[in-house]
Write a structure and sequence with these properties.
Layout: H1 2-5, E1 9-18, E2 25-35, E3 40-44, H2 51-58, E4 66-71, E5 74-75, H3 81-91, E6 92-96, H4 107-117, H5 122-135, H6 151-163, E7 169-173, H7 181-196, E8 200-204, H8 208-211, E9 216-221, E10 224-228, H9 240-249
Parallel strand pairs: 3-8, 3-9, 6-7, 7-8
Antiparallel strand pairs: 1-2, 1-4, 4-5, 9-10
Helix pairs in contact: 4-5, 4-6, 5-6, 6-7
The structure holds adenosine-5'-triphosphate.
Domain ABC transporter: 9-247
InterPro entries: AAA+_ATPase (IPR003593), ABC_transporter-like_ATP-bd (IPR003439), ABC_transporter-like_CS (IPR017871), ABC_transpr_LolD-like (IPR015854), MacB-like_ATP-bd (IPR017911), P-loop_NTPase (IPR027417)
Protein name: ABC transporter ATP-binding protein
Length: 252
Amino acid sequence: MAESAAPIVRAIGLSKVYGEDESLVRAVDEVDLEVPAGQTLAVVGASGCGKSTLLHLLGGLDRPSDGEVWLGGRRIDHFGERALARLRRKAIGFVFQAYHLIEELTAAENVQLPALLAGVSPRTARRRAVALLDRVGLADRAGRLPAELSGGQRQRVALARALVNEPLVVFADEPTGNLDSAATHEILRLFADLRTRGQTLVLVTHDERVAATADRVVSMRDGMVTGDTGFTRSGGAARGNGLYGSLLSWEG
Ligand SMILES: Nc1ncnc2c1ncn2[C@@H]1O[C@H](COP(=O)(O)OP(=O)(O)OP(=O)(O)O)[C@@H](O)[C@H]1O
């Protein structure tokens, strides 16, 4: 079908330059990339090669110096700030190494927050949070503050939060970077579950165990893509609801 042909994430000649003259850094240098619906892409490479910058550009957290970013068939790199913020809130889930949970809010409140900000009713937001915390194995921790949770538990809350608006794509930046191997294993199990459900996922990682779970691994050096396994698994079934619901509501 025509709509399944458009990749969820697409970068064309994507570049980000910092500084100028002698201090000029090509953090991302003319990267072309496509991630079809339902695929998991891992981006690997040495520290400073541009992985996080690439992820930030793809997720609309940062603006490219040159090139194009497309999400769900729409070009987003020249969206205004408000449209970008709305897009991030409704159509993208982010998971960061440092969790970025709000310390004053309980696990359930942290998960609900992006839904409330996206205009979902409190009742629905609460229902989604309960279901997602259950899915990540934390139903019994819903009322705890982040400080009362382990690192692995915090990251599972962050993952539940990333999913609360049924995003088109989840971007994860070193999601296991602060975790021990048991907690890493648990996050990998949840990523595997996401793949089964057809969630498109792009993750940046140093960890070979994490990269090994992806359908495709792209390696970077000096801002450029220097290796690419290509997709090794045919695309999962893209979920109807979240996918098209998110698309339709971007500019709402
Ligand atoms: N705001 C900025 N200003 C100037 N240079 C920057 C900025 N952000 C990143 N850089 C530079 O861009 C390059 C790529 O950085 P980036 O953080 O994307 O790399 P990375 O591969 O994610 O590294 P790490 O694995 O250590 O997180 C580096 O040389 C970095 O110093």
